[in-house]
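idk why but the lab printer keeps eating my pages so im just putting this in chat instead. protein + zinc ion:
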Amino acid sequence: MAVFGSDLEILPEKIYENFYHLTRNNIILKYMFYKRNSIQLPNAVSSDDSERVVVFVLTDALRPDHLHINGYSRQTTPNMEKNNFLSFKEMYACETVTTRSVPCLLTDMRRRDERYKFLDEYSVFNVFKAAGYYTSFISAQTAITTADYGQQIIAGDADYVFFNNDYSIRYDKELLKYFDNVMAHDSKNKLIVMQLNGSHWDYNTRFNHDEALWKPLCGNFALDCPAEHLTNSYDNTIVETDKLLNSIVEKLKDKNAIIFFSSDHGQSLGEGGLRLHSHGRLHIKEVGVVPFAVWFSDKAKTYTNLDIVSNNLNKIITHDSIFHSMIGCANIKTDVLDDSLNICSSRLISVPNEYKNYKAKPVQ
Ligand SMILES: [Zn+2]
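predcted complex ->
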């Protein structure tokens, strides 16, 4: 979300400075759209003639150690467990702000590439479109702030794009009507990327307080409530995301469908005195590590070697694996696919442990 990534300040005395930034960012945006328009589709084909739906649910600011499915003490993920999501042990984020990590993880840009490398790389939309899919990007976030242009550019590769620019979406679950619209499209194969507000601050706006499982909640200011109240609010957001995943499973369980689930970055909840997230915190494990899980419908299992995926669960992977796993697990044949990053391949390589000597500091 833009709130913490914006380089604009809404102060009257900043009006000239803001005008400068808006003008500059608009020029950058136009240049990037122009540059992106010249990208050609790669060669890609579906290697079977099944009817398939591939969904990627991209939440925001969710850290994996707060998922019960990963061993967290609170039951935050009953539906992921009931539906047998396969959860990976560790995935490293491209970056620690939405603006930078989303374009990276939706394209063949690699985690250590320079910031704008995504402009020259294929996106999942390019590859799936080339393989005959109807492609869509639906987001509960807005694209009207100047700082979020990276994800606007990449979302623009899709056939259908929805951003919550009119703020008509209050809760993430309201995105399901756009999901249904895409599902009603008459194309045989569909790709749906859903971007949530998920666990992004302000946590308390993400769930109905009457249904909150953990109280008391944090007040209006993330930086001065007691850490346990902050965690209560945060954990309640995860329950909402878990319910949304269940709704999507219900819609897809009789189809040949795969759901990928991850987050753009993690979140500090008071460790070392830090809260929330911002650019440049990749060395901090709470922010630099994200969840990654995948679900296969019964029909999809007939096209997938689940033993291979299960054997890969303990490997350490990065956001770079999302692009290649979506393509690889959907059985799309293309030169773009790198099996060393594909969770559906026995050739998946585990990356070195970057947080081996990381010691979480006390929560403050
Ligand atoms: Zn984010």
